[in-house]
Design a protein that fits this description.
alpha+beta, Butyryl-CoA Dehydrogenase, subunit A, domain 2, three-stranded mixed sheet, Butyryl-CoA Dehydrogenase, subunit A, domain 3, about 15% strand, binds flavin-adenine dinucleotide, 3 domains
């Protein structure tokens, strides 16, 4: 049965995260929006310390290590996707750009979780539990390959003499790419092909740690929104990594197999509902702020009266609340399925489509309904309007996720419906 009520431990954590959102994120939102590429170390260091103390380690689903003195029997439960969804919604309500710089494995760890062997998970994810904050990232997109991930051209060739993989290529728009490679001892999971003629069957994921010779961050994007989050271009020039940095079992190395591609899709099935959760957080922030500003102007939304007696403004606000809640229910369903190891590709995409839609609509309408106040930098509404759009772009655009939903419902393959 799907639980609609958040379990107690999640509710307690929510309260702590709300405190972080109110006291550490909101007061700095405007500053880091206006000082793009400055790094909010106070927030990063605080979150790293707090997550270590609570045993969370990283904002990634994982088996928590028992604390010192805990017997294996008392081993603490994993951070599930449901818990993560709540956490990310709260933090994104605070500032979704700043949430993206929360230390931890991010998309990189999610890829290791989805495609790595148990040994690789242990080996690569341990670094996020250390004393210093460490970041992870995932690089799929290339100048000629965005939505069509099978079109990637970065190559990985096995050197038979050293058993190392040699990677070449260019990756663009890598979230936290700079922090993973230049500001911490993190890694980027790079998707490359071991056979450029094989399309999807040639795709494999490689863990490229910070400090790997031949890996250069060449650019940081200047962006519309989420400006505190670094978005990097990375060039790989004869970058060498050990054999076991290819994620997955030995079988994955054999050709041809679409296991590598399926690993990429499994990563997205896990993370799309989480992106949707961040979108819901931004939408909730905008809606609450809208109502609060209206209230200060003497306009209080009257709930529970017949719709025909409502003002147009009241109807609009209530419709926005319906949008917000419907998106959240889709998120909860998708993460519940992920936690219960059920195939959730359709639900993950549905949640992302809906949340991407509603966050753009709600933030835009909030700007409009407040008139000049909505457009002014006095309030954060205009910032959330700019931050919102990314939810509908990364990890599969709205159009691509609609295609995935349609394929699932109609029973078409990717080749049959594109
Ligand atoms: C801030 C930011 C952070 C990012 N972070 C990462 C990251 O960490 N790692 C990473 O690998 N990538 C990242 N990306 C890249 C992102 O995933 C891609 O931008 C996205 O997948 C779309 O690819 P594209 O930009 O090449 O657009 P295209 O694929 O060229 O698409 C352009 C437009 O055409 C539409 N379209 C394309 N194909 C179809 C189709 N078959 N049917 C209907 N419409 C279609 C798209 O929806 C879109 O509207 C990031 C992007 C941004 C902006």
């Amino acid at each position: 049965m799907i639980e609609f009520e958040a379990p107690k431990p999640i509710l307690m954590l929510n309260t702590a995260l709300e405190t972080v959102a109110v006291n550490m994120m909101r007061p700095k939102s405007r500053y880091f929006d206006e000082h793009e590429h400055e790094i909010p170390w106070d927030y990063i260091n605080f979150m790293h310390m707090a997550m270590r103390q609570t045993g969370a380690g990283s904002l990634a689903p994982s088996e928590k290590k028992p604390k010192e003195g805990e017997s294996p029997k008392e081993k603490r439960p994993p951070i599930g996707y449901q818990q993560l969804a709540y956490m990310l919604e709260r933090l994104s309500w605070g500032d979704c750009g700043m949430y993206l710089v929360t230390p931890g494995g991010g998309l990189g760890a999610a890829a290791v979780e989805a495609a790595g062997t148990p040994e690789q998970k242990e080996k690569f994810l341990a670094r996020f539990r250390g004393e210093k904050p460490v970041f992870g990232a995932m690089a799929m997109t290339e100048p000629q390959a965005g939505s069509d991930t099978a079109a990637i051209r970065s190559t990985a060739v096995l050197d038979p003499n050293t058993s190392e993989w040699v990677l070449n290529g260019e990756k663009i728009f890598v979230t936290a790419g700079h922090k993973s490679l230049c500001e911490s001892e993190g890694f980027v999971v790079v998707w490359a092909t071991i056979d450029p003629t094989a399309g999807r069957a040639g795709m494999r994921a490689f863990v490229i740690p910070a400090g790997t010779p031949g890996v250069t961050v060449t650019k940081l994007e200047h962006k519309l929104g989420i400006r505190v989050s670094d978005t990097a271009s990375i060039v790989l020039q004869d970058a060498r990594v050990p054999y076991d940095h290819l994620l997955g079992s030995a079988e994955v190395v054999k050709e041809p197999t679409t296991k590598g591609f399926k690993g990429a899709m499994a990563t997205f099935d896990a993370t799309r509902p989480l992106v949707a959760a961040t979108a819901v957080g931004v939408a909730r922030a905008a809606l609450e702020e809208l109502k609060s500003i209206l209230e200060k102007q003497g306009v209080v939304i009257r709930y529970g009266i017949p719709r025909q007696k409502m003002t147009n403004l009241e109807r609009e606000v209530i419709d926005m609340e319906v949008m917000l809640r419907s998106a959240w229910l889709l998120v909860i369903k998708a993460v519940w399925m992920a936690d219960n190891k059920r195939a959730n590709s359709k639900e993950a995409s549905m949640s992302k489509v809906r949340a991407g839609d509603i966050v753009t609509k709600i933030t835009q309408r909030a700007v409009e309904l407040l008139g000049p106040l909505g457009y002014s930098r006095e309030y954060l509404i205009e910032k959330w309007f700019r931050d919102a759009k990314i939810s509908d772009i990364y990890e599969g655009t709205g159009q691509i996720n609609r295609l995935i939903v349609a394929r699932n419902i109609l029973g078409y393959t990717g080749r049959e419906l594109r």
